[in-house]
Amino acid sequence: MEGGTTAPQDASAPWKFAQCFGDKGEVEDITEADIISTVEFDHTGDYLATGDKGGRVVLFERNDSKKGCEYKFHTEFQSHEPEFDYLKSLEIEEKINKIRWCRRQNAAHFLLSTNDKTIKLWKVFEKSLKVVAENNLSGDRFQSAHAAATSSSSLHPSLAPTPTPLVGSGANLRMPTLTHHDTIVAAVPRKIYANAHAYHINSISVNSDGETYISADDLRVNLWNLNISDQSFNIVDIKPVNMEELTEVITAAEFHPINCNHFVYSSSKGTIKLADMRDSALCDQHAKHFEEEEDPSNKSFFSEIISSISDVKFSRDGRYILSRDYLTLKLWDVNMDSRPVKTIPIHDHLRSKLCDLYENDCIFDKFEALWGPDGKKVLTGSYNNYFHIFDKEEEQDVVLQADKSAFKNKKAAGNKKKGGAAAGNGAAPGVPGAVSQVNVDNVDFNKKILHASFHPRENTIAIAATNNLFIFSAASSG
C-alpha cells in the first residue's frame, strides 16, 4: 500500500489521493487475471469489494485506527471458475462482471457476484476455530492404575482382582473440551442462480424490499427471489422472433432505490426505459421512455455506436437518472423524458479520433457512471487513467488521475510548476473544461478508468485502474 497526496489543488476541489492497493514494483508483470473488473462499497461504506478477471473477490474493511477514510485487507475468495458449455461449445470466463451487496441483517455479510452466466450469493462471516484441549484419553490415571494392578501380581490377568472403577462403567469418562484457537473470515456460497441467461449478464441490482433482485443480459431482464435459486421470472424480453430483425440490446438495468416496483434499463440505441412491475407480469410496455432526438447535422457512421448507453443509475432519492454514453454524461429528471436536464461532455476532445477508436475497439469501452452521497456530484472515468467528478450545482468539473507513474513524476517535479495539474497533460483540477486541453495525440488508450464506486456517506471514492485500487478522499471527509 502506498500513501501520499496529489499536487496542490484548487480549494474548490479538495480531492486527495489517500491509498493504493496493488503491486509496487517498478516493472509490473500484470496478468489478465489481475485486472479489476468491478468495485462496490457496501451500504455503510465500512466495507469495499473488488472483483477481477480471474474470478476472485477481495474485500476491504475500514481501518478505524486511522484518521480519515482508509481501508485494510479483510478477506479474499475465489468466486467463479472458468467453465465450458458443451452444448454451445462456448467457454465461459471466470471474470466477475458485477458485485452487489445485500443489506446487512446480522453479523454476516451477503453479496451477489456474477460472471457472464452464473450469479452466486456469498455469505462472508467470522468463523471461530476451536481445537480439542482435553478428552478422555488425555489423562492416564485410570489406565496406569489398571496397569499397576495387573503388573504387581504374578497371577494370570484373568484371575487378577476386578479393577475399580469397573471398566465400561463410565465413572472416569470425561467429555472432550474445546478451546478457541483462531478466528478466520470465511466465505461460503449460499445460493447459485444458474441457467437463466442465454446471453452475457451485464447487470444485477438488489431491490429495496431486500427480497428480490434483477439480472439483465443483452435481450432479457429476469426477476429473482434471493431465497429461490432454481427459478426466475422473465420481466423484460426484447428478443425478436427473427434474430435478423434485432436492432438493439439491453446494456444496463437498475432498481429504483425506494419504490420496489420500478426499475430502469438502457439500450444500445441510447434510450432509457422506466418500467413498472405493477402494470403487468411482462414489462414489455414501459411506463416512460427517455430519449434525446439526435441533431441530423451531427449524424455520422459512428452515431449509433457512441450513443449506446454503457451505464444507468438512479440518484439516491430516485428523482434523477444518470446515464453514460461514450462521449457524455447525461442527467435526466424522472418527470421529464423528452431531453436531459444536463449534458456533461467527457470525450469531446476525441471526436476527431473516432475512426482510430473504432479500429482499436476502444469506442466500445463501457464506462460506469456514479452518484455522490449528497446527490450533487457525479463521477465517471476516461483515458490516461483520468476520472471526472462533476458538481452539478457549482457547474464544476474536477479532473483527477489514478496513476502510479503520475504520482512519482509529481514527487520528482516537486512544486516547480505553481499550482500543478492533478490530471497531467494540461488538465488542471477544479477548472471547468480543463480536460479539453489534453493533448489528443498523447492519450494512452490502454489506461482507462472503467470501474469505480462512491462511498454512500462521505466524499470518498474507490477507483479501479488495471490491477490497482486507488482511494481518493475530499479534504472534508473523515
From TrEMBL:
Question: Could you confirm whether the keyword Hydrolase appears in this record?
Answer: no
Listed A to Z, the keywords are: Phosphoprotein, Repeat, WD repeat
- Entry keyword Transmembrane: no
Q: Which GO terms are recorded in the biological process aspect for this UniProt protein?
A: negative regulation of G2/M transition of mitotic cell cycle; regulation of intracellular signal transduction
| InterPro entries with a match to the protein in the record | PP2A_PR55, PP2A_PR55_CS, WD40/YVTN_repeat-like_dom_sf, WD40_repeat_dom_sf, WD40_rpt
Taken from the UniProt entry, a GO cellular component term is:
protein phosphatase type 2A complex
Pfam families on file: WD40 (PF00400)
GO molecular-function terms, A-Z: protein phosphatase regulator activity
To which protein family does this belong? Belongs to the phosphatase 2A regulatory subunit B family.
Please explain the role this protein plays, according to its UniProt record. Phosphatase 2A affects a variety of biological processes in the cell such as transcription, cell cycle progression and cellular morphogenesis, and provides an initial identification of critical substrates for this phosphatase. The regulatory subunit may direct the catalytic subunit to distinct, albeit overlapping, subsets of substrates.
Q: What is this protein called?
A: Protein phosphatase PP2A regulatory subunit B
